[in-house]
């Protein structure tokens, strides 16, 4: 595989795993981040160790100017091949809907929905043959929460991911004939820092008994699904939401 892959939220967790596996499979990688630069630079360094080009770029995916700058920066590495819309937040305050602060809910929707829209729009403008591009692929990171609802914890987060699923299917229909495949991966419970950041370090332990495979997933397992959807092996796959959740 050749070309440049942009991974939003690429400095840790699933995003970092995607960056590493993408480099192993021949991509040059733009590692997007919004906060601390150090983890992003470490991921970019790992990509370079694997023999590929890498660039860490700070950008807020909810800001149009930042998103344009992110994609402009990618041009320095080579032709754009794809986008992984991985940046997302829960709001870190679990609780019932009637306990949630509207400012947190708005921020979650802005990052998880508007951010996906802005990045996908910019990718289509650069990849679609309608706009003079050479085609490519977009993979949005959803969640099995879109189907499960996350009652008592993050209903607003689950709703944002359901929006990602619908957006994925609709955009896939718009651009499938323009050389751009759009799909999503919906992870289930995965070992990342999300649970600790939300003040629930035991969350995985509590949910494992309900997972038929008897364990949580690992970021690398999600990355494998993402890279397959980006690959020629998924050449007839568009508008799909691939659940990777151990059958939960």
Automatic annotation (TrEMBL):
Read off the SUPFAM superfamilies from this record: NAD(P)-binding Rossmann-fold domains
Q: Which residues, if any, are the signal sequence?
A: none
Which lineage?
A: Bacteria, Bacillati, Actinomycetota, Actinomycetes, Pseudonocardiales
Q: Which domain of life is it from?
A: Bacteria
Which Pfam families does the record cross-reference, listed alphabetically? adh_short_C2 (PF13561)
**Which InterPro entries would you find in this protein's record?**
NAD(P)-bd_dom_sf (IPR036291), SDR_fam (IPR002347)
**The name this protein goes by in its record:** SDR family oxidoreductase
Q: Which CDD domains match?
A: SDR_c (cd05233)
- Which family is annotated? Belongs to the short-chain dehydrogenases/reductases (SDR) family.
User: PANTHER family given for it?
Assistant: NADPH-DEPENDENT ALDEHYDE REDUCTASE-LIKE PROTEIN, CHLOROPLASTIC-RELATED (PTHR48107), RE15974P (PTHR48107:SF7)
